[in-house]
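Q: How do we represent a protein-ligand complex in a form that can be generated token by token?
A: Start from the inputs.
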Amino acid sequence: MASLLVATALITVHAAFAEDAIGDWTYLAVVVGSGVAAWAGARRSGFQIPLTLIALGVTLSAAGDVGWQYFFWTNDEAPNISVADVGWLGSYAAIGLGLLGATRRRSGSRVDRDGVLDVVVVFLAAMVAQWELSLHATVTDTSMTVPVRVVWALYPTFDAVLLALVLRAVFSHRLQGLAAWLVAGGATCWLMSDFAFTLFAADGSAAVVMNVGWMLGAVLLATATFRGRDSIAQVSGASTGATYSGIMVALVPLLLPGGIAVIQHARGAESDPVVLYIVTLMLLGLVFTRAARLLAAETELREAIRTQERYAQALAANSSDASMVVGEDGLILSDAPRLAELTGYAGAPTRGQDAFLLVAPEDLRAARAMFNRCLTLQGQTFDTDLRVRNGLSRNQWLSVRMVNLINDPDVGGVLVNLHDITDRKTVEEALTHQAFHDGLTDLANRALFIDRVEHALRRNFRTDFEAAVLFIDVDGFKTVNDSLGHVAGDVLLKEVAQRLIHAVRPGDTVARLGGDEFAILIEQSPHVRDESEAVAERVLQALKTPIVLESQTVTVSASIGIASSGARTTATSLLRDADVAMYRAKSSGRGQCSVYDPDMRTAAVERLQLETGLVGALDAGQFSLMYQPVVELTTGRIVGFEALLRWNHPTLGVVPPDRFIPVAENSGMIVDIGVWVIQEACATAARWNRDYPTLGNLSMAVNVSARQIASPELVTHVARALATTGLQARSLIVEMTETALIDDTAVATARLHQLRGLGVRLAIDDFGTGYSSLSYLRQFPVDILKIDRSFIDTIDDRGHTPAIVRAMIDLGRTLGLETVAEGIELSVQLDQLREQDCDLGQGYLFSPPLEPVDAELLLVKLAPASALRRQDPPLAST
Ligand code: C2E
Ligand code: MG
Ligand code: MG
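Then emit the structure tokens for the protein with magnesium ion bound:
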């Protein structure tokens, strides 16, 4: 800054004392000082090539000035040409090169044709001006030697080149900031002074002005080297399109030939029209070329934009997504060509229509809510999945992303992007279905069923309706599965599932809870009890039709328990109650249905208690047998005993068989218990027969249940008991009820024949209470008929025997069977039965079931003392 002030001061002094030596010295001081300063600036830039060249130019110019001054002082006259000219001309070359370097393209090796054209145009224009104004005169001035003329002609030529480069640099924006203006300004100062020199060299009046121009030029150029570091480094290599300044540079030179003619005319000088015309033509050619190139560049740019547009369109058209712009009112503002394609629905909305026409009715509310939220939040993205209205039966899902770009002037709406996610949704739905459905029957599974029941109970809480659950267990499924295999079992379950579905109303839920257990939920019915019993009846009816399995035909039935909801019912308690009721139905025989009542629950709890208690009871020796005598009615003689099982429960006391045998039967424990009973009863009977031979051959009756008959081991067990105890086979009577035989008649018949084969006698117990059927009696090889107590009860004090009892006794006689009357309590009953020729009897009238010791006491009493084999009978003293 200080040096600039000094330079300004020196220039002022020079202007004041131009004629004196001070003028010369100040001039030299300014130009030499500028040279030195320029180098300092170049150095600061790290000797960047353009700045170094400018510094060189300023220095060369100063060297020229110093040389010229030296000649002037020594010879007192300046020569026409001298070494000084080398410095001056060299300075133009250096500065020109510096400008070229600064404006060179940074990237790409392509020649900057536009730049060359611009430079040539300006150069040509400047040259013609120079030519007309002075050059022509200089070149043709024969008063001067040729070398002088050549050197003098070089100045305007170099000026023209420099001018062209400066203009090019400034107008092409290659030089930016202050540096550009400093360089341009400096060069212009020099050019102006040169120009003035050409015009007014002859008269010395303008000398001061010219000197000032040269000095100023040197100062500005030197300053530029300080300023140039940053701005030159920032020069961008980007190509420029058609700018106004570019057009100016190209066109303005056309004004020159005419302008020159006008100036020459004003000066009263002649101008050469031919030269001007030729130059005009040349300029025209150049300008045209430049304009054509600008046009080409413009077209190229436009094409590039169009390519970009087409690229974007191609992307949009071929993407799997669809997008559209939707206005605040929900109307589609843009084209939405992919929409119809994406949804496969010709009726999909298009530009100008309501975008929500696309959304399926079930998702419409959610879609609108999200859109409204989106409208309130600028620029935020919202995502959701929606079902669409597509005219197809299957659901189609789109993932929807929307972003509010209403304030974006290029968009002006909500940008909505849609993507088909139906495949993903289908898989998700399939997985959910799998999680809540039974794989075999496709019915609801336990989890879904519980969920449905919970829903129903919650709904019923608000309405007055009740819900009911039917718990269904397929009877005899295990037999089918064991005998025909799992494949047949699966077919059976599927068929049962189908029949259940057809037996219910459309709103009811049918589920498979596992194995052969099914359940039905009946809800939203004001008469749920009647309705559920009707459904149970329909289910039982539907199962009556035989099912064909791999060439085999089977008939299954079901045991059904019904429970309906009360005030405090939960899903699990409702299901459990139905299960309890089902258990009751099952224990009363196949194909039954029972409705839950709270007593059943007590029974179920007790059953559970018994079931746990039974485990290990046999090993703990908690079982014992009581013996009830069987009497010959005509003589009153004891012919045998019936063994009756007792369980001495550690806390419940003596549990009667009616209570625990069904439980043991259900859990399968009856088989092991039965083995013990047979063994124990046989052992007792064998001992008594050995010890009291005079009482004849006493028989021993044991009871067996359905489960025991089904087991093939029964025969082995009986045979082993007979063998190990030595009891005669004829003395053993195996008793079974009709119900125990009916479950699988084929197996039962075979089993009875096997037992019969051992020599054992067979009795039908509780005759008349089960599925009494003459055909069964003929089919089963039985020996004894035990008429159930309930019939004997009907014989009252007045001595009347009902026809049914008489018929039973007759039947036994006809079939050649022995008849036993159970539960004789009154002597009148005994009399009547005797009268009807009933063979044997049992009952409290004769004796209740006795402990083994008491039974033996009875035997001791009856047997003649001499006949006793024992030396000291244990109870002989009584
Ligand atoms: P059941 O075989 O019909 O046995 C006769 C039942 O009638 C016995 O009941 C007996 O105590 C009872 N009773 C006998 N005379 C009279 C009478 O005059 N009046 C009345 N009210 N009852 C009389 P208990 O001992 O309670 O046995 C019940 C049932 O348990 C038996 O009926 C039998 O079916 C079954 N049971 C008993 N022991 C066994 C066993 O070891 N194995 C199997 N599987 N079942 C058994
Ligand atoms: Mg019995
Ligand atoms: Mg009985």
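Residues 233-239, 866-878 have pLDDT under 50 and may be disordered. The chain has 31 helices and 20 strands.
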